[in-house]
Design brief:
The protein is an alpha/beta fold and about 425 residues long. The protein is built from 14 helices and 18 strands. Strand 17 (about 385-390) and strand 18 (about 395-400) form a beta hairpin. Helix 2 runs parallel beside helix 3 and helix 12 (about 325-345) crosses helix 13.
Length: about 425
């Protein structure tokens, strides 16, 4: 049986990709430790999805982290690697592809960044989001990692001079794989059928050792490798849904507004509550947590967001006043939301926690000291329900990238949880 390592640059990416295999009946393990000790693997572990947390790092640091992980995986006997990239092409795309190629001593890699079912396609080497070139989309306006180019070759060459060859659908079966120099074969794709064709070509040409792309292409790996199937994990009932939103992506903002119009209670955190984690060590913080617990438990669907509060100091103004950079602020927000989630669990809140933005879920896992979870199912498009254990408790979390999901995704989450609860009662 084959083994596959997925290397993702953020946590939601590791989950988005891992869940594609869960849907095939393949048991996946998602870990947050990029220095993972491969001796911990069990004989039946066929798929390991690791978050390197490299998206906000410098290219040099990202390369080193990915290279070391891939090298260790190769030594541990992993013959196949899938380098998961963001479908909005944020992060250290070029240098991380090179890191995997170097670690596995490969001259070529197939790169398939399209995700057609999410309206993200690659045409003539240009990435389009909902019909708009990615630089002109919400990803070009990302406050932390804005995408500066729509041409994927330009994105790659911003970090490395590695050769890029663009492959149109009519040329899928005519690729000349043998090259003297390292080459990234960039595949156009606009439909799921084209992704399927690419998977068949890579299998036929025996080019499955290292492949790159987003979660969309990963769904075709059942054609490329032979995995051992296992018993699936199941959702368990909970009393409600608590959504902790650390994303400022416009897509998530629209989703929260939709949820609020459809029965969700929503509260904004002020700057002190979302940026000053030291306050939560004070005795006064206990009153805040108690009040918040009673508010949340008074309803079964609650959103806590970190958007600017109208009439109050904005995050940007806070950054300018304190000299704290935006990159540091994002981690402060994640840590504060992690503390809040942990405090709610400790008070006995038996809710499923929805965490928007990879940093948000990572903040929670860091806070409780957990480095691993298992995906259970996908809710809508791009929201993954998983389970973890802490102090003998089973905690269910739903992760969603800030740029993913349909407008009613939070309502879908709530309906899914409610159906599970009603099913148990029935």
């Amino acid at each position: 049986m084959d083994r596959l390592l997925i290397i993702a640059d953020d946590f939601t990416g590791a989950l988005d990709t891992g869940i594609q295999f869960t849907k095939m009946g393949i048991r996946a393990r998602i870990v947050t430790d990029y220095q993972y000790d491969f001796s911990q693997l069990r004989s039946g572990d066929a798929l390991l999805s690791v978050n390197t947390d490299t998206r906000p790092l410098s290219p040099e640091d990202a390369y080193q982290r990915v290279y070391e992980l891939a090298s260790n995986a190769r030594k541990a006997g992993f013959q196949h690697v899938y380098k998961k990239t963001d479908s909005g092409l944020r992060g250290n795309i070029g240098i991380e592809l090179k890191a995997v190629m170097d670690a596995y001593e490969q001259k070529s890699i197939a790169f398939i960044p399209a995700f057609p079912s999410m309206n993200r396609i690659t045409k003539d080497g240009i990435q389009y989001i909902d019909g708009v070139p990615v630089k002109e989309s919400v990803f070009g306006k990302d406050p932390f990692e804005p995408v500066d180019y729509s041409d994927i070759e330009e994105i790659i060459h911003a970090q490395t001079d590695i050769r890029v060859i663009k492959i149109a659908p009519k040329d899928y079966e005519n690729v000349r794989w043998e090259n003297e120099e390292q080459t990234i074969f960039l595949f156009d794709a606009e439909t799921d059928e084209e992704l399927l064709t690419i998977a068949r070509v890579l299998t036929q040409e025996k080019k499955t050792a290292i492949v790159a792309g987003c979660a969309g292409f990963a769904a075709n790996y059942n054609l490329m490798l032979d995995f051992e199937k296992g018993n699936p994990h199941f959702m368990q009932p909970s009393d409600g849904l608590l959504a902790l939103c650390g994303s400022v992506n416009q897509i998530t903002m629209n989703q929260m507004e939709y949820a609020e119009k459809h029965g969700f209670t929503r509260t904004h955190l002020g700057n002190e509550q979302k940026l000053n984690i030291s306050q939560y060590a004070s005795e006064e913080s206990n009153a805040f947590f108690e009040e918040l617990y009673h508010q949340i438990s008074g309803t079964d669907r609650y959103i806590l967001d970190t958007l600017d509060v109208p009439g109050k100091e904005t995050v940007k103004e806070f950054s300018e006043r304190t000299g704290i950079g935006l990159s540091d602020i994002r981690f402060r927000i994640a840590d504060c939301l992690g503390v809040i989630a942990m405090e709610m669990v400790e008070r006995g809140l038996n809710y499923t926690f929805s965490m928007t933005g990879g940093d948000t879920l990572m903040g929670f896992m860091h806070r409780i000291g957990n480095k691993e979870l298992v995906p259970i199912c996908e809710i809508g498009k791009g929201a993954v329900l998983s389970a973890m254990r802490w102090n003998g408790k089973r905690i269910q979390v739903i992760s969603k990238s800030g740029g993913f999901g349909e407008e009613d995704v939070f309502v879908q989450m709530y309906d899914t949880i409610s159906d599970c609860k009603e099913g148990v009662k029935g």
